[in-house]
Amino acid sequence: MRPSATPALRKRREGLTLLVVTAVEAERDAILAALRDRATLSTSGQVEVAQSGVGPAAAAAATSAALATGDYDLVISAGIGGGFEPIGVGAIAVAATIAFADLGADTDAGFVPMSALGFGTDRYDVPAQLAIELTDRTGGHLGTILTVATVTGTAERAHDLRGRFPDAVAEAMEGAGVAAAAALHGVPFAEVRAISNSVGPRDREAWRIPDALAALGRAVAAITNAPLEVR
User: Fold this and answer.
1) pLDDT by residue (tens digit) across 115-165?
2) Which of 15, 18, 49, 178 is the most exposed place for a label (fewest CB within 10 A)?
């Protein structure tokens, strides 16, 4: 039996224990730097930041391994990513839904997602109150964050994705992997992205990775500024 896309939420313990999963070292370090002065969090073990590697498979494997050996109340996939207009560089995107955008089949009639083929889940809904709370704390934009195995590099693909996901706010490569692992372990999940570039034609000179990393650190620090109600 496959796990539900939306996990059964655990009864909240006193002092929420949060696992933040990043893809790369720079994202992890930006978050740790933002949390460094937060002694109550860093010494109590309430927040743990793990680096999974790039892509949904690596993210799922690392998250599942962490959840199998630790006791967490919430998992957040956090990092930088591409933003869909009009969301600009340095802004924060928060997932109401995490969608594995290229898990499916190409057909003459267009792309068919895996769920429509009857072979599994490609959408993971974040608990609504949690998504709203994260949006409020970060000043972010709430919508669907897409997980892709191939980064968008053309206007044509960006247009196709926006057509299939009108409420898309960002694109990244790990969220669905983190969500799949969290659902398997029955742990609530979320995703937060700081925007480093626009989704579309690749223009490395327009990317603002340092700005996005700084925004990412501030966002996670804001999330951990007070206890979260995970329900």
Assistant:
1) 777 788 889 999 999 999 999 999 999 999 999 998 998 998 999 999 899
2) 15
Helix spans in the chain (H): 25-35, 39-44, 56-69, 114-117, 128-138, 155-164, 175-185, 209-223
Q: Which of 45, 44, 76, 46 is nearest to 63 (CA)?
A: 76
* Radius of gyration of the chain measured on its C-alpha atoms: 17
Say if pTM beats, i.e. exceeds, 0.90: no
CA 104 vs. chain centroid, Å, equals 20
Taking 3-state DSSP, the helix, strand and coil percentages for the chain, each rounded to the nearest 5, stand at 35, 25, 35
Question: Is the N-terminal amide bond of 227 cis, ω within 30° of 0?
Answer: no
Please check the confidence at residue 94 and state whether its pLDDT lies above 50: yes
Name the residue among 214, 165, 217, 187 with its Cα closest to residue 17. 187
For strands 189-198 and 74-83, give the pairing: parallel
